[in-house]
Amino acid sequence: MLLGYCAMSALAHSRVTRVPVPWLYAGKPAMISINRPPVADLFESASAGPFTRLETRLGVWGAGDGHAEVYSYARGKGIRLQGGTDRTVTLTLPQAAASGMLSSFGVERFTSAAPYALVVEVLAETGWQTVCEQGPDTPAGQPGRLKVLAQGLRASQFRFRCTSALGAIIVPGINLHGYFND
User: Fold this and answer.
1) Which of 28, 48, 88, 129 could be cross-linked to 72 through a Cys-Cys bond (beta carbons 3.0 to 4.6 Å apart)?
2) H helix count then E strand count, the chain
3) What is the distance between the alpha carbons of residues 102 and 171, in angstroms, rounded to a whole number?
4) CATH number at residue 160
5) Per-residue model confidence as pLDDT tens digits over 19-49
6) Domain count of the chain?
């Protein structure tokens, strides 16, 4: 038995809890949502560096020259939108999916320096429609799960646009399993 620390709600509900050692070696949870494709290791086989087209098992990522790169860092690999104004990367899926699948991804703001704005859009019948936004109050240095506003929209193209001094990293598979069940 190990002790684990859980900090929640600005430390107001923090506690130390028991964590059984076998949980440390447990595989993925048996129940995986059918609405969210597994993306935890999505970019692991991709070579680090800039790209204009990147094929993954989820779909094809496209970006303009100098807009994006596969970035390797302490938490694994992700897609870094380079610093600058309106840097864009587009994910094209082989078939339409609900916009709620985007909540399988997180975005990590690269620096707290201004400006910072991230917009995630889906290509609907009426054109590009915003489903997620991050602004200057977004903390830097930690991946935050995308909070999708319009869960029910179905699309096969998703666009990430970022204006930032140093950019942002799209990270796959933020998994917070329920280990604190005592």
Assistant:
1) 48
2) 1, 12
3) 11
4) 2.60.120.260
5) 666 655 555 544 444 444 455 678 888 999 9
6) 1
